[in-house]
From TrEMBL:
Compositional bias segments (type: Polar residues): 179-189
Similarity annotation: Belongs to the Cu-Zn superoxide dismutase family.
Entry annotated with the keyword Transcription regulation: no
Protein name in the entry: Superoxide dismutase, Cu-Zn family
Organism, as annotated: Ornithinibacillus halophilus
One Pfam family of this chain: Sod_Cu
Region feature (Disordered): 143-189
Keywords assigned by UniProt, alphabetized: Signal
Amino acid sequence: MRYVLFCLLLFLVACQSSEITSKTVDMYNGDGDLVGTAALNEQPDGVQIKLKLEGLEPGFHGVHVHEIPKCEGPDFKSAGNHFDPEGKEHGLMHPDGAHLGDLPNVEADGGGLVDADLMLAGATLKDGKKSILSKDGTSLVVTEGQDDGVSQPGGDSGARLICGEISSGEQNESKETPTDPTQLNEEQE
């Protein structure tokens, strides 16, 4: 009987999934200084992001997941466009939106600190079309101004100030080029 229980336990341990369900991302400014972290956790409704940052101007700032896990400063254009596997319009308030990578604005306090809990609804850290770890991964970008929630293609939120690479750790260098954010929209018309 003990042998059967031991074999069953061994079988169950061997069948456990190796999928990533949490990840911590280091966030850097355009000068390459570490300015915070983003703790990502798989949830039933999406990916929870606990964002802790310093060094921002007080006020609201846009936050988006971008399509390429590359954060080359100072402008972080290497991160590509917003993560949008379904070809939707930009903006949490847009009637034809939102990009999967669109997140609510965060507010930096008087000292330039951000401590925010966000939900990237519909996304996952597991395998699939909506995985922010698929292919080589994605990146998390914070902008200088707030996202207006409707302007195309990126919310009119200003320059990219902070970036963190979201990857499974299996790939070091992305070979992707940014997509044309209007391409999928034109194909749907």
